[in-house]
Structure formats: structure tokens, C-alpha cells
Amino acid sequence: MPEGHSVHRIARQFDRNFVGKTLHASSPQGRFAEGAAVLDGREALSVQAVGKQMFLEAEGDVWLRVHLGLYGAWDFAGEIFLDPTIASANGRMGQTNQRGTDLDEAIYDDAGENSLASIGAPRRARVHVRMSEQTKGLADEGLEWPPPIVGQVRLRLMTDVTAADLRGPTACVLQTPDEVLATIAKLGPDPLVGDPIENEERFVRVVRKKQTPIALLLMDQSVVSGIGNVYRAEMLFRQRLNPHTPGRDVPEDVVRALWRDWVRLIAVGVETGQMMTMDDLSADQYRAAMASRDDRHWVYHRAGLPCRVCGTEIALEEIGARKLYWCPYCQA
């Protein structure tokens, strides 16, 4: 499942490529035909991400809500104009930099994805993007337009030069403004949305009154928005926090540290498109991590391997129907 950084990156690409333009909407699969007919011909006015959900506003008080869930993905084609605040097509980082160095050339990971140019959608096979900073004639590039329909496309949104195909979402619905507000009100704070001070206080208040294990609270989207399995495991390790500790037993300063770490990690994720959770890496170490997804994290996906800090075997268990990775020594 894509985590919060991916959805924010996708929303930013919609802002760059669709907002202010007339939408051409269709449902090749047929399951969203009525909704597509409502969207078709309307101007896209705004877009925002909150946690793992994206909300696209069209004229006439119509909102499209999309939750990708476990299997959903957006496939972009045509001219894709990059948000200047995130990694650009040549792989250069943006204004903030976790690793403290710049690399201009692409770095391909073991799945064949250019790690520094990814827009952060969940699967490489469904992200076919030609990124460019200036519009070029599609006919001159020899591209087929409109792009052919591949697979079960729930919704296709198009402008004159850009297409976005949605497959396999958990939710793809139209909402009124009031329904959007009600949906967002049920979500926990997102570091990239709203007042940063109130977001932190809200997170601390909720966690500190819950008997629920902190590992479950971090995955509860009504407690905090955007955290998934990878960030959950990594954040708990980075605070050396036992995942089974009830929320109300986690010291307040540690709860605040968890929130501030999430603020930092999602910013890095939005910029790079990758869930890089290891710090203080040299340029060579960072390049190696970018080339191998399993080398970007402290504990995630490392069951049975030695802890990078203490050497203890990383444990794997199921909690809340999801896999949890943690170090029984460092997080005792």
C-alpha cells in the first residue's frame, strides 16, 4: 500500500498537470461510468492529499476522492511537468537533502526504478512517465495519443497532453464539499496539512489516552494520517520503542519525538519518492541504499537478519493483520 508521501507526490503532479485545465474523463472498465460522465468537461480547480487519500476538486462543487488501498495505482502518460519542489527528471534532489550530497545521474534500484526520479506511485510497472520541463509536440515524439488502454482502468483523466489512468483503487467516488469535509474530519493529523502545532498536540493527546499498543496506533488513520507498514516499523525503531507499549504508557517526550520524526520522514519521502529511513550515510552508502530497497531501512523487511545496531536477529510477527518488524534488544 502506498504511504502518505506517495499520495502527496501524486497530488502535486495532478496540481502541475491537471489543475486549471478541462478534464476529459472516462471509465474504460465501466465501473465508474456515471462518475466519469459527471467529471467530463469540467475544469479541475484544486487538489489536495490528506494521509493516503487524494481529493480533486472540479468546478460545480464536485470532488473526486481516491484511496488507492493495497492494489490501486495511477499510471501517467504524455507530458508530465514536474513539481519543482520534488526530485526532477535528471535525479537532482530538491532544496532539502537528508544525505547531505547531490547526485545528478539516475540511480536504478533492484526493481529497475530510477529511485531519484520516481513520483512515488506504488509500482514501477504502472508508472510510465515521460517527464519534461517544456511542452513538446506529442506527434513529434512519435507517441500514440491517446495512450492505449491497458488492463482494468477504473478512471482515465486527460488533458490535451497528459493522461492519468487509475487502476484497482479501494475508493473512487464523487463527493460534495460537505462530504469531503466529513471524510477529512475522520482522519488523523497529516504533517503536510493544517497547523503544525495543533497537529502535534492532537497526535499527543490521542496517543496518550489510548491503551492500544503504539504499533497499532501508528497505523490507525484516525490517529495519524499517512503512516503505513514501512514507516511504522522504522519510526518505532528510530525511537527504540517497544511496539507493544500501550499508547498511554509512552512518555510524552517520546510521543512528541515520534511525531517530529514523522514530520521529517514524510518531507524526505515527498522530495525523493522513497522511504529512506537511515541517516548519516555517505554518498557511497546512499547510492548503495538507493540501488537496493532492502538496504534503505533499519528493520523493515529484515526478519531473521542481524540488527544493524546490536546484531540481534530482527523479529517478525503479525499485529493488526500486518507484518511488524522490530529488534527485541534495541526495542526491549
From TrEMBL:
Belongs to the FPG family. Its EC number is 4.2.99.18. Residues 298-332 form the FPG-type domain. It comes from Microbacterium hydrocarbonoxydans. GO terms for biological process: base-excision repair. It comes from the Bacteria. It is an enzyme of class 4 (lyase). PROSITE patterns: FPG_CAT, ZF_FPG_2. The lineage of its organism: Bacteria, Bacillati, Actinomycetota, Actinomycetes, Micrococcales. Its cofactor is Zn(2+). Residues 2-100 form the Formamidopyrimidine-DNA glycosylase catalytic domain. GO terms for molecular function: class I DNA-(apurinic or apyrimidinic site) endonuclease activity; damaged DNA binding; oxidized pyrimidine nucleobase lesion DNA N-glycosylase activity; zinc ion binding. This is DNA-(apurinic or apyrimidinic site) lyase. SUPFAM superfamilies: Glucocorticoid receptor-like (DNA-binding domain), N-terminal domain of MutM-like DNA repair proteins, S13-like H2TH domain. Keywords: DNA damage, DNA repair, DNA-binding, Endonuclease, Glycosidase, Hydrolase, Lyase, Metal-binding, Multifunctional enzyme, Nuclease, Zinc, Zinc-finger.
